[in-house]
Predict the 3D structure of the following.
Amino acid sequence: MQKFVYYAPTEIVFGRGEEARVAELVKHYGGSRVFVVYGGGSAVKSGLLARVEETLRAAGFAFQASGGVVPNPLVSTARRMAEEARAFQADFILAIGGGSVIDTAKAVADTVAAPGSDVWEFWTGRKVEAVLPIGVILTISAAGSETSNSAVLTNDTLPQPTKRGINTDLNRPKFAILNPELTMTLPKWQIGAGAADIFMHTAERYFAPILGNHLTDEIAEGLFRDVIHFGPIAVEHPHDYEAMSELMWCGSVSHVGLTGVGAKGDTAREGDWACHQLGMALSAIGDYTHGATLTAVFPAWARYVKNANPARFVRFAEKVYGITAGSEEEKIESSIQATARFFASLGMPVTLTELLGHKPEKKELEAFALECSYQKTRSIGGFQVLNYEDILNIYERAV
């Protein structure tokens, strides 16, 4: 077994109606002036925001709510909210929503805790040294940001928008309230995209440059099977509590780091994350749904890198899909096809043509590859390191 350090301090409060405990949890973690971050109109229309505000009011907390977070969250929104939270003198940030809202809340927490700082500084190299405590009421099973140390923002204030991520354990929420019933009114597309994101958070860690922790693999493979089984059920029957609860818990576990324990060595990066980088470039330029960008590139990525470690893909085929017949090459191809069918069952695209709604021209693919490679200044991936030419080749194969 590889050596590792595992840290996952977020308190999970799971089940029906548990959002009623939000004031109790905020108090426990030291909050008194609560800045509430939410997205579009769903938190308002559903009455969730009003219920949370009433709970905070009854507990004697000062609070201020700010909305407007969009999918693929924007620096401009985070910057505005940070200014509002500073003026309010917030000492606790509460996110009501999914990954975009939580990532924005993390940006606000980082910025307010550093007087005079700007949001984007932390996404371009400034070290996060302190944050305001963060709590979450989750309404979308997808990003896993409620348990992760990561956050992603798109800088929409630049001439060419660009998408970046940061990782710091200081950004881990203090608590996350997970009530599957809060996800039951989501559109089918959003449920499917969320299930795809959950699958891919595990895949990025599973296809790692350093292997050897058997229990970690078993946990990852079980999570794959659970999402493959319950994801399509959740899409078709969003009021199925069992399916929605399984998907919600899978989302939190998929990004808490447990499925990647031991994948990080002294000199190796954790996991692969190439598909996420390929997808982030697409959504930075075209504002496409994150989960859909991942499914559009995964089959092409898998076929491109499979020879870096064929045995890993064979294990994936056998343990996740039960594919035991055929040659090594046939097992690998069957597993890639099975994954594409799973994505399609969620309503997700499995090619760039499906994602974009048209067959992309070479210049579009080159623009994506330039964004992904930071204008040819970096490589991506750990399972197989990919430079600009590799990235462009994968996009071309994904057409």
